[in-house]
Every structure is written in structure tokens, then in C-alpha cells.
Amino acid sequence: MTPPRLVPLSPTTWAWTHDSTAWGYSNCGLVASDGEALLMDTQFTLEGTRELLDAIAGAVPDATITTVVNSHQNGDHTWGNELVAGAEIITSAASAAHLCHEMTPEMLTALSRAEPTSAVAAYAVEHFGGFDFGGITVTGPTRTFTGTTEVTVGRRTVELIDLGAAHSAGDVAAHVPEDGVVFTGDALFTGGHMIVWSGSLTSCVAACDTLLDTGATTFVPGHGEITDRAGVTRFRDDLSRVFDAATSYALSGTELADAARLVKAAHAGGLAHPERLFTAVAAAYQEAGVQNVPSGTLPLVEGMAQLAAG
To answer: Can you give the pLDDT at residue 285?
Structure first.
């Protein structure tokens, strides 16, 4: 796997990117100006976050990270928070309240080291068994907001946007208007299918429209390659097509598992992790009023694992 790298986007913005669509390898954003810096998200592990912070120190040695923005509370975006000592940690009120129903590092370690005797365990071992979650103290936000708020970083203004329920119950994007850059968190994926934890595919589509409404030209997704307005539009339109197909199956009385297989066959395309379409179909079924649709981390992971297994 190619090592992650810090990519300059403008004189004051950078993206920490991975050439990987695998689970857990998330992108981060950096805004630095006049000795101050804002970091958008941290990494899944302490080792990964130290690597990120070392790269930042090399790129902007005179800048101190005074603010961390968490796009949502999944561990692959927050479990390195503790290493940014003294920084204010900001997220949306909905994100902080929901906490993504996230497993603890200890729980995920146990699951990903277990004997793969079930679909969930096998999936966890495959996708998370290579990470070391040792020593992590989960460190939450110190400030929350609703709607929008602005943070000043040296001479740069960063607009934080509460996207509402999309990938998670309360996604946050960071817009740097002067640079035309948005760090989207997991409201946007490139190269791989989206995971919908929130139960609302409609909100995922609406979040894409909000991203486009910023007028920005460069978008750093939570996972995958940096993209442009056309990339966000394609992602939104793909979600809309999945929503329409899944809703049609829901209204016709098709069982969720059968609908997920049909949607996967028609909409997987060349993107990684087509099993994640189970979460999108489940969200559409919830919105259609179908009863007893799986929700929450483990039931949705089980659905993905079973779809992946065929």
C-alpha cells in the first residue's frame, strides 16, 4: 500500500490522503495561516495520527494546531484526537450526541481478533484485523454547534457546516471560501460505496447539494481521491438512483436482503465495497416505512457481511 501523504491544495490548505479505499484509511484536512492551524479529523490509530502530525510539522513547522474539527464520531476520524494536546475539538451537536453508536477500541479489537465463526466476525477480521487500537483514550469534542459557524485560522476563515444526518447522525464539512476547498468528511466517498449509518438516504443526497452550494471547486472526501464539482454531482446522482431503485423494491414488498442483492447487481459498478449498498437499501426501506429494518452498527455490519458473502 502506498504511504499516505500531505498534498498541498493552496498556499494555506492541505489534504492528508491515502491511496486506498479500504476500511479505516480516512483522509484529513489542514488549514494553516500565520502560525495557527486547523486539523479536520484525526486517524484510526495513534500510530497513524503520529505519522499525520509529523507530516504537518514538516510542512508548516511554525504552526500550532489550535482547532480540531471532527466530521463525525467514527473512530477512523477521531481516535487520534488525544494526540493534539490543548486543541479545541469541534463537531456538530448531533454528532456529539449520537457518537455514531461507535464500538470502543477495545470492542473492535476483540471483534477483529476473534475466530471468524460468524459473518460479522469474518468481516471484522478481514477489514480491521490489521489495525492496532492499543493505548487509545477516546477523546470527544469540547465545543459543539448547529447550523453553521466560523473559525478564524490566522488570516483564513473556515466555515463549518452542519450537514445533518447523512453518513452519520450529524456530519460536518469544513469550507475554506478563499481557497475554494471543502473537507467533506464521510458525506462524500470516492472510489468506494458510501456507508449510510444515519438511516436516511434522502439526507445523504441533500448533503451533496449543500456541498455543491458552497461554490467550492475542490472537495476532499472522507475516503478516496480528491475530486471536483463533477465528482460530487456524480456521487449524488448515483445515490439518487440507488434510492429510487430501493424505494421501488420497498413499495413492492420485496424482502430487504433480496432488494440489496438486486441493487448490488445493478448499481455496484466498479466501486469498492459494493456490500455497503446494504446500508443504503436499508435506509431507503426505513424511509419507505418498512418495519423492523436493521439499524445500528452491528446489524448493519451483519447485513453488509452477508451481502459480501453472497
So the answer is: 98
